[in-house]
Amino acid sequence: MRYHGAPVATLHLFGVSGAGVGKALLRMGLDRAPLASTPGLRFSKLLGTGSGRTFTLRDADPRRWGLFAVWDNAAALDAFEAESPVPRAWAGITDERWRAELAPVRSRGRWAGRDPLASALWPHAPAHANVAVLTRARIRSSRSLAFWRAVPPVSADLHRQPGLRYAIGIGEAPFGLQATFSVWRSNADLTAYAYARPRHREVIQRTRDEGWYAEELFSRFAVLTTQGSVEGADPLG
């Protein structure tokens, strides 16, 4: 399912062997310049990944790295994958890759001072698509301890939800810049978790009352297509 004239977002995940960790870390620095000059690329962030269960170094997965991007259209994405040195470099060091192509349907907040999905939202989400959510926050240093104490039970509850299809922690840095990307079978499953689970509701209220975040973003997407694998299989296949 593709709509070539509309903006799209992507999450790319790159899996490397132990011997490739150093090269992957190097790409986090080297890829910034070619990404900045990529035609049709509106926004991009190179990311580390982890389990997202505590949002500390214990979660970090040095064998999996990521790229979140927003494109003018699917043609710009296709040209990037065919012509850019970035995917070619990753192809030389990865054991596996996975890409989710996403239709942005809702966005609130900022990432690095801007809304990456401004003017990119689709007026109507494709019917019957899985629902992806990206939640990202810059945590105030004075609130870090409260955040880290609150996360583990909420994360454990998240991974018990029957409507959850996939979840991964992502971030620009090991501390303070945290995000979760999750995919749900439907809006109903996502809503049941977000608003009906007591632990999640409590943490949402505390973030507001105690001012945990200096910046936050909540974005929702319809999953259009996926390619590749994570740990040997497409988690949405």
Task: Name a few traits of the molecule.
alpha+beta, 237 residues, 30% helix, Alpha-Beta Plaits, single chain
Question: Which strands sit side by side, in order, in the main sheet?
Answer: 1-3-2-6-7-5-8-4
Largest sheet: 8 strands, antiparallel, barrel
Q: Care to count the β-strands?
A: 8
Between the first and last Cα atoms, what is the distance in angstroms?
14 Å
Helical content band: 25-40%
Which segments are poorly predicted (pLDDT under 50) over 5 or more consecutive residues?
none
Overall, the morphology is globular
**What is the fold-level CATH name, i.e. the topology?**
Alpha-Beta Plaits
Report the sheet-strand fraction. Answer: 35-45%
Q: Overall pLDDT, averaged?
A: 89
Number of domains: 1
* C-alpha-based Rg, rounded: 17 Å
Number of helices: 7
CATH class category: Alpha Beta
Element-level helix/strand string: EHHEEHHEEHEEHHE
Which structural class matches the secondary elements? alpha+beta
* CATH architecture label: 2-Layer Sandwich
Strand and helix map with partners:
Elements: E1 8-16, H1 21-30, H2 32-36, E2 41-50, E3 60-71, H3 74-83, H4 85-91, E4 94-109, E5 131-139, H5 144-159, E6 164-171, E7 177-184, H6 187-196, H7 198-210, E8 213-228
Antiparallel strand pairs: 1-3, 1-4, 2-3, 2-6, 4-8, 5-7, 5-8, 6-7
Helix pairs in contact: 3-4, 5-7
Report on this model:
- By secondary structure, the protein is α+β, with helices and mostly antiparallel strands.
- The chain has one domain (8-227): Alpha-Beta Plaits (2-Layer Sandwich).
- It has 7 helices and 8 strands; from the N terminus they run βααββααββαββααβ.
- The protein has an 8-stranded antiparallel β-barrel, surrounded by 4 helices.
- Helix 5 runs antiparallel to helix 7 (198-210).
- The longest helix has 16 residues, at 144-159.
- The radius of gyration is 17 Å and the shape is globular.
- The two termini are 14 Å apart.
- 34% of the residues are buried.
